[in-house]
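Data availability (excerpt). The following record was deposited with the supplementary files.
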Amino acid sequence: MRIPGKRVQRTRLVRTDTYIIEVQVEAVIPDADPAEPCYEAETVELLREVEARAKSGDIEWLKRHGKVYAALDAA
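Predicted structure:
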């Protein structure tokens, strides 16, 4: 079910121990409560899949869905 409202693009960073993935997702500013943008279920599922793929090391899939950065340990 789609939430009625204005659709805007947002950048989300998904962080794991090894990678940081920058993903562009769609957020909705609901007509019923325009105070804060929210995400639809499909977007939340995409972000969960990005995290799971990052944890499993599926770099090729991640590169098709966003920018991939290597996380470095600070000295």
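Summary of structural features: The longest strand covers residues 19-30.
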